[in-house]
Amino acid sequence: MAEGEQLVIRNAGQFHPNTPVWDDGTWTPLPRLEGEVSADVCVVGLGGSGLTCIGELLRRGVSVIGIDAGAVAGGAAGRNGGFLLAGTYDFYHDAVARHGRERARRIYRLTMDEILRIAAETPEAVRLTGSLRIGDSEDEVEDCRRHLAALRADDLPGEWYEGPEGRGLLLPTDGVFNPLHRCRILARRAAEAGARLYEHTPALDVRPGQVLTPGGTIRCGQVVVAVDGRLEAVLAELAPRIRTARLQMIATAPTDEVRFPRPVYARWGFEYWQQLPDGRIALGGFRDAGGESQWTHAAEPCEPVQGPLERFLRERLGVRAPVTHRWAACVGFTPTGLPILEQVRPRVWAAGAYSGTGNVIGALCGRAAAELALGAKSEPGEVFGSAREAEAAAG
What we know:
Blueprint: E1 16-17, E2 35-44, H1 48-59, E3 64-67, E4 83-84, H2 92-99, H3 101-121, E5 126-127, E6 131-134, H4 138-153, E7 159-163, E8 166-171, E9 175-177, H5 179-192, E10 196-198, E11 205-207, E12 210-212, E13 216-226, H6 231-234, E14 243-252, E15 264-266, E16 271-275, E17 281-284, H7 303-316, E18 323-333, E19 340-345, E20 348-352, H8 361-373, H9 379-385, H10 387-394
Parallel strand pairs: 1-18, 2-3, 2-13, 3-10, 6-15, 13-20
Antiparallel strand pairs: 4-9, 5-9, 6-8, 7-8, 11-12, 12-13, 14-17, 14-18, 15-16, 16-17, 19-20
Helix pairs in contact: 1-5, 1-8, 2-3, 2-4, 8-9
């Protein structure tokens, strides 16, 4: 934590330091890798994209070893706001302007389908509630109208909304979920299906056909590095194209002071919140309040962001319930808002840097990485595979 970022902890008797509200404390840790092992494919990263990749590889009949530097979903995959949103980092009309109508529409439809797939795979973790985008100013309300017009022009679902949260859009195909619960379900299923999974096993060196770890070596035909934040720390050649940021959240004790039946995005997406089934409020945002200090690999909450979050909770949302959780996670951003999905070294594939959209696009890219590593066709691979050229065109 940088100088001047000391975090003042309130409600210390009931506070969970840097623990996401999703963590119920029931996970049984997996072993560390020791010795030499081999498999058809090694997947580095046991978050949402890595576990989706492992599931697809198993479905295709190949042997898999999966490793993570921390615990299953210990990074952004299990520490985010739990939103399932269609589309890219950009709102749809901005995505059309940036990526072209055909690509934007294809991505939007792929992500809509992926939300349904996620819900079907893990219904116990998902609620298909729809989501709200709320304008915090007249300019933003007008931008919401442009957003809706672009959706309607391409026959995509969206409705104008005016209600207690404000004015904006209702996006009926979106949803929410418990991201950590979903990843743990996927990890258990993968292990039951024969995947060998190891926690607290960082990849020290990734080479064609080999991954070195502190306790051993993995020999494999292909490697997939499926990591969101800090991807550039694993594959250094990606560093010029990725910038890792810290995102922060808070959560409250259960409350009936307010009712938010759908997740909400506000202030151009900088703030976002949902109410959990037990009444807790999970709120994130204000990365811009922290300035340049939030471009970091440090995943601890800090006062320049935590203070505005709590003020927003009290003054904007009208919630007085005590804050019980404060946490942070790191995610990777690209210049175009499109993910990294490509072969970066011989027989080494990268999927990550989802620009804050890892819950849905990460799952798409994880499945696509499995397909690409096995030489199969992949529609997400086709749609996202030219992202490098798009970055070059954007300068």
